[in-house]
Amino acid sequence: MELPVLNTSNADKAGWQPGDAGTQSRRRLPPWLKRPMPGGQTFARTKQIVADSGVATVCVEARCPNLTECWEKRHATFMILGDLCTRRCPFCAVMTARPDPVETDEPDRLADAVSKLDLRHVVVTAVARDDLPDEGAGHFARCVEELHRLCPETTVEVLPADFHARDECIEVLCDARPELYNHNIETVERLAPTIRPQAKHQRSLEVLRKVKAYAPHIVTKSGIMVGLGETEDELLETLEQLRSVGCDVLTVGQYLQPSAANARVERYYTPEEFDRLGDAARAMGFLSVASGPFVRSSYNAAEVFDETRRRLKEREA
């Protein structure tokens, strides 16, 4: 697959000046990366439910560009185990610090919020909790179990850290029977030591392999950010690696620098490039692929999961 080169002449005509990578945080975004300002009654209602729950959201903590759109649809991605992470990843806006003690009533508050939002599919992620003996796996499992109890019609997608690929941690979360287990590879192997210094590329692949081996009925999913300096060949190799461990679902999105302190954007991919990446991934056998500038792990996750289940039924027929 050949990815088209970035057409800077067209971008300039649209009022976007690429500049050099060192000044990217101060230059204007390309026109396809603009988002609406918040507003509307549904947005306000979602915001209030989230606030009342006392459960953090990755929407806010990670400064997600899709917050307005998702909250207008009454969608929110909850982040359990607090809002302080034990890891410091240069791409991520979540604060790194010594975490607070685990709140034992969080599963109840989470399920209540999901019930009030009337979500048919919910994505639950978490900060890394390397400070805990089980790295938070047991608490994560209790959240899934409470969601299934209080919201039996809601499908649950979990997005945990890597648990250092520990069998006992992965298995306790799988035993809670989430419908989908998501673990992001984030970037290509060459860039992983810089972008994910406390994680490991091969370890993330091992997590996905172990989930599929232990619980074949659980759909597995992973995501990658582009624009960090990866090459086309490296991207395709990473997608092939994900398929080799049985990953079912893929998301591909543009990395956007949350703040001047975070890793910089090396380039912006065009919508056409995302389409071609998506086509290449589908040709490799992923059941469902979401590829676009604003795609994130939880973006339109319900629709992505619906497509996955449809493709699984077609495969079984």
What does this structure look like?
With 317 residues, this protein is an alpha/beta fold. The chain has a single domain, classed as Aldolase class I (TIM Barrel, Alpha-Beta Barrel). Helix content is 39%, strand content 13%. It is built from twelve helices and ten strands. The strands form two sheets. Strands 1-2-5-6-7-8-9-10 form an eight-stranded mixed beta sheet, with helices on both faces. Strand 9, helix 11 and strand 10 form a beta-alpha-beta unit.
Query: What order do the helices and strands follow?
Result: HHEHHEEEHEHEHEHHEHEHEH
- Share of helical residues: 25-40%
Our measurement of the CA-to-CA distance between the termini, rounded to an integer number of angstroms, reads: 31 Å
User: Beta-sheet strand percentage?
Assistant: 5-15%
What value does the Rg take, in angstroms? Answer: 19 Å
Biggest beta sheet attributes: 8 strands, mixed
Q: Under the CATH scheme, which class?
A: Alpha Beta
**CATH architectural grouping:** Alpha-Beta Barrel
Tally of distinct domains: 1
